[in-house]
Design a protein that fits this description.
By secondary structure, this protein is an alpha+beta fold. It has 4 helices and 10 strands, in the order αβαβββαββββββα. The strands form 3 sheets. A 5-stranded mixed beta sheet has the order 2-8-7-4-5. A 3-stranded mixed beta sheet has the order 1-3-6, with no helix packed on it. A two-stranded antiparallel sheet has the order 9-10. This is Phytocyanin domain-containing protein.
Length: 187
Amino acid sequence: MTMQAALVILVFSGLLAVKTTLAAQHVIGGSQGWEQSVDFDSWSSDKSFKVGDQLVFKYSGLHSVVELGSEAAYKSCDLGTPVNSLSSGNDVVKLSKTGTRYFSCGTPGHCQSGMKVKVNVVSADSTAVPSPGSDSSSDSDSGSSTGSDSGSSTGSGSRSSSGQGLRASIGYILAVGSLVIGLVWAF
């Protein structure tokens, strides 16, 4: 019976490794970060975000991050009732469910000048074509933020779109390897 328990633990460990390796960290604005000079519509046009991914907002003290609750607030730059406000300069927001999320700079006039981004989050197992507001690349080594109910969290690590397939392969190898080792050990 202990052999079977060990097998179950090994299989679940491998599956957890797969899930972890498939999540990506997206630095909003790429190497420029969360700055006014970035065209966020262009930046996000070839990107896709998945549940479990993280958004990283890197910026100077001149900016902040405000999450807006609706498309209407996003379009009109209505910052009056934000879902969340962040101001560390290195904020990480975890994408914990599917749907659209809206972010803007909280500095007066910055949203109106285009410092805002719309993120369409799809399920983690989705094979959909990339949609505006997502990226598998990261120029960040670490992140921190103020926690909140809107999905903010602390994260670290760097991910790139070219390494996404490799990370997935490694995760699957770990899962299958754990299963094989568990089976060999059980018999």
